[in-house]
Amino acid sequence: MVDINCDMGESYSIYHCGDDEGLMPWVTVANVACGFHASDPRVMTRTVALAKRHGVKVGAHPSLPDREGFGRREMRLDREELTAGVVYQIGALAGFLRAHDMELNHVKVHGSLYGMSARDPEVAAAIADAADVFGAPLVGMVGTVHEQVWGDRPAGFVAEYYADLDYRDDGSLIITREHEAFDPVRSAERALRAVTEGKATSENGKELTVRADSVCVHSDTPNAVELARAVHDALKPHLSS
C-alpha cells in the first residue's frame, strides 16, 4: 500500500502559501512545516486540526533556518547544531499534535536540507539523531545516502517518489526555488508506474529504479490540487486506508 504525502502548513502570519483546504481530501499524509522555512504557531495548530478532520496522518517537515529563502538555500551547520535545530522543530509540532490528540507519524526534512542529506552522510546522521529522539520514521529516497544511513533504522525508513519534480540522470532530484506547474495526467501516470513497476524516467529520458512507499505532491506547485486529485485517482486501488 502507498501514501500520498504533501508539504503543508507553509503559510506565515498574513502571507498565504498553498491551498491546504483544497489539497487535504486528496492526500493521506501531511508534512507540516515547523517554523524554520515557513509556518508559525497558529498555522501549525490549524494545519494539524485540518488534517485531523480529514483523517490525514501528520509528520514534521523541518528545515534549515532559512525563512527568506524558503529553506531552499544550502547552509553549513555542524552536526550538533543541525540535530538541535531539527529536534526543536519536531518538538514544536509534537506539542500541537498532542493538543489535538494525534501522534507524530514521521519526519521528512524540507528543501535543501533534504538534498544535502541525500548526499552527505554526516548531515543524514544528524537528522537521524533528531528523529531517533521521537522514534519517528524518516522519509527519503532509495539509491541515495538517505537509504544508506536511514534504511536500517529501527524506527523505519519510508521511500518516496516525487510527482511534481524532475529527476537527473543519476537519480537525484532537481530541487527548484519556485515550483512550476506539472501536467496532472502525465504526473499521475508516472506516479502509478513508480508504485507498480518501481521505475521512473529522468529529464533526459533515462530509466531509473525507484521505490514509492509514498508519493509526494508539493502544496506550492501552481496546480497542486488538480495534480493531487489526478495522482489520488490513479493510485486509489493502492492507497493506504
From TrEMBL:
GO terms for biological process: carbohydrate metabolic process. It holds the Pfam family LamB_YcsF. InterPro entries: Glyco_hydro/deAcase_b/a-brl (IPR011330), LamB/YcsF/PxpA-like (IPR005501). PANTHER family: 5-OXOPROLINASE SUBUNIT A (PTHR30292:SF0), UNCHARACTERIZED PROTEIN YBGL-RELATED (PTHR30292). This is UPF0271 protein. The lineage of its organism: Bacteria, Bacillati, Actinomycetota, Actinomycetes, Pseudonocardiales.
